[in-house]
Amino acid sequence: MAAADETQTATPPLNTAISNALGLVWKDYAGERFAVKTDVRGTRVACTLENSVRSFNDGMAAANDDDAENPPPSPLTVASYRRAAIEAVAKVTHQRVSAFVSKHNAKTDVATEVFILAAPPRGRSVPFAEPPQY
Questions:
Q1: Could you write out the DSSP letters of every residue in 113-132?
Q2: Inter-CA distances, 55 with 7, 26, 82, Å
Q3: Measured between alpha carbons, how far is 30 from 62 in angstroms, rounded to an integer?
Q4: pLDDT averages per 10-residue partition of the chain, 134 residues
Q5: In whole angstroms, what is the distance from residue 134 CA to residue 131 CA?
Q6: To which H or E segment does residue 50 belong?
Q7: What is the spatial distance between Cα 24 and Cα 123, in angstroms, rounded to a whole number?
Q8: Which of 78, 75, 96, 74 is nearest to 86 (CA)?
């Protein structure tokens, strides 16, 4: 039981905050919320969503259907998802996102979102950076 408690306390709160923020964005596009696993290493943020790609694709198609009951205020597109995901991570981390790579594998039904944060100003360390593990 002690090992489970240690694992829970070892998880940095930033990972949870990013997971929650991206989970809300994902809900807008997939129509349901999925668990997001987030790993922060320095300025690299990697988020993984399992069993989610089909729902994302179906949710976007249904929301943009002309016969949809409650259509979104603006069409849901890959570009609008990209903007929303970047904005969510930037807001939580208080860092500008300088790169974003999104990979949705329909075969495995796994989505991987990688954000590269802009380096902090010179002389200031990244407050949430974890030491490298060798």
A1: EEEEEPPPPTT---TTPPPP
A2: 30, 10, 17
A3: 9
A4: 46 83 93 92 95 90 68 78 96 94 95 92 56 46
A5: 9
A6: strand 44-50
A7: 34
A8: 96
Is residue 97 within 8 Å of 117, Cβ to Cβ? Answer: yes
Q: How far apart are CA 97 and CA 85, in angstroms?
A: 10
Q: Output the CA–CA distances (angstroms, integers) from residue 28 to 22, 32, 41, 77, in the order listed.
A: 10, 8, 27, 11
Structure tokens at 29: 């596009």
Structure tokens at 65: 């259907």
Give pTM, 2 decimals: 0.75
Encoding tokens for residue 130? 């974890």
99: left (phi over 0), alpha (psi -120 to 50) or beta: beta
